Amino acid sequence: MSSADQNATRQLDALEKIDIARANIFVDHKSGRDFDHPAWQRLVDKVRRGDLIVVTSLDRLGRDYEEIGEVWRRLTKERGVDIRVLNVELLDTRRRAPCGAGDLDLSIDEEPAGLAAEPGGLAPPCSRRCKPASDFPVVRRLAQAQPDMIYCALMPYEEIQHFRRYHGYDYSRGAVVFATFHLEPRQPLFGRIEDGRMVYSAVGRIAAAVIEKESHRTRDAQLKSWVVMPDHIHLRIYLPPGQAAPLKKLGQFIYNVKAWTRNNAQRELGVMLGWQKNYHDWLCLSREVIETVDKYIANNPLKWSLMHGPHAPLRLVEPVKAAVLPRGEWWTAAGNVGLLDGKIAAVRLSRSIPARLHGEVAGRLMTAVEKGFILAGTWISPCEREVFAQLVQRGAAVVRASQDPLAMVYRPKGDEPQMFAHGNYLVLSRVAAPGTARGVGWHGINDALNAIALAGGGLGIYVKCEGGRLRWSRTG
Fold this sequence. Notes:
This protein is of the alpha/beta class. 32% of the residues lie in helices and 18% in strands. It has three domains: 9-105, Rossmann fold, CATH 3.40.50; 171-308, Alpha-Beta Plaits; 330-475, no CATH class.
């Protein structure tokens, strides 16, 4: 960890999930200015040839790519130790010969795999001779303060930093790219958003037809998903491995879309289109990121409607006014604030609950939903995240509390746009004082949710596992 007060819960959860005993987990709490970490050194001294070191992300091995490569080579080639990186499926020396030989090879062999992101790592500098990301103080502060966030080349959500084409990555190994380009000047010539759907204008229909035609014309740049918005276009493109000049193939694909759309619009409609010079492109670095991009593309019209439409449920409500909220506390929210007027069950699920019991927990909680309860929690432990997903699939009304202050416009993730659209979802946050950016911490949020539930005639639920069986306790 990069500081003494940082929470290692997520990384511990990931390691315990693959049955690593707590006694074999080494955690450092120290500033990341250098890599002189006592716990890491104890681990390195302890391992022997044939042992396996598991890290949650590649940047746990060093502070920059040169250091990571050297540590990787020394451990795997000189010491004969295997390494597995949890968030990079490709990086497991027990399965990949190149890595087992001591070389850090990050090739992409097939479309869905991708090169995995490194949470907390810094993106490589761009190929336009820009300053490297680490030269920017804001990037260094972010990487030190929030190592579990993904600093990769992707735009969809505000917590993801992006930098242009990766310097040092060989695109001929294969790549999954998220590309965006817009009209210049930006005008809604492609159509409008109605009820979360894109309604094409005549120009928009031409653009969509050109994209469809171009997707079947070449296999050098394979279009996997796309969306035409009122003034811009998103594409996810796969560049197969083994090509010469793959970025030229990507540029040619986007150029063809722009040129044929412009020419057809002028010839058929007499409309002159101007395009942004060049385009924005981001390298998708893991299967999770690829799935995130596809959800972003699929939900983009709905998200726009939620953010800018007449009801705009994603606009921040600040402060939240509800009878169950204690006076003198400052709460902010996005979504259906009316859920706070119902009976709330504040839910806490222990990390000790094994995966085989998650379905049983979700089923029991659904009985509370059927009795009219709205389930509220932080939903951060592995069990809570899985149960949350099952509850959402079954249509439960859910409140998710966050320790972090909300932005003025909430940026939905994954399937959240549909949840907001159905009106059965609320994201709630409490800050220490108005106008501050400091939250109250997870324990403070859990205690506050319990108090809110009891104030409204609801109940508090705590579930843990003892002796292989679920133990339920409740208040209220």
